[in-house]
Amino acid sequence: MIRAVGFDLDATLAVPERSRARILADALDAAGAPELTDAVDRAAYLDAHANHRTADSREPVFAELLEPHDAEADPAALADAYREAVTTALVPVPGVRELVASLREEYRVGLLTNGPVRAQSAKLDYLGWWDAFDTVHISGDLPAGKPDERAFEALLDGLGSDPDETAFVGDHPVEDVRGAAAAGLRTVHVLGEGDDPAPEADATVARDRLARDLPGILREL
């Protein structure tokens, strides 16, 4: 029986209103480095981000991105501009506020999100979600981020639950689904349009049906 539920944040409970590539380009422009738009793309950003999951801010991410280029852009200014652009573009998936509130009547409910402390905290401030969960964990405050088992151990400690009685709900096939499954949790893969289900997933749900279908899925796990 499932007694606790953990959620990912980005692309699971909230999504940006415009593409991440556009957000990155806007941040480069706002920080005075529009000439880097073609050189610093989304794929390069994700590679650099993966190297700094436990950082306090995105400054080391942008420092790594800028290193190969002859540019005077300030990594700290870029990190601030990107954080502002990402945060203000974020909107909740329809119905998830009510979903989380209703689940807390039956389960312990937590959040485990990868990213720098400042960036993810800004999102939670903007959405007003700090008090929406029984426990919140940001990888920048942890020894490791998802898919590392230590990240899920932190979530389980916060929830006060065992792995086999805990479900984790997330969109990323490796960080969320494979990582949670390896840590012994049950897994629900949230699928965007065109996404393929992760083989480790115990169940899947379309993101636009998350609020409607997740309660029934949890009862069947």
Automatic annotation (TrEMBL):
Keywords in alphabetical order: Hydrolase, Magnesium, Metal-binding
Pfam annotation, one family: Hydrolase
InterPro entries cross-referenced by the UniProt entry: HAD-like_hydrolase, HAD-like_sf, HAD-SF_hydro_IA, HAD_sf
Signal sequence extent: none
Family: Belongs to the HAD-like hydrolase superfamily.
Database matches in NCBIfam families: HAD-SF-IA-v1, HAD-SF-IA-v3
Name under which the protein is recorded: HAD family hydrolase
Origin species: Halobaculum roseum
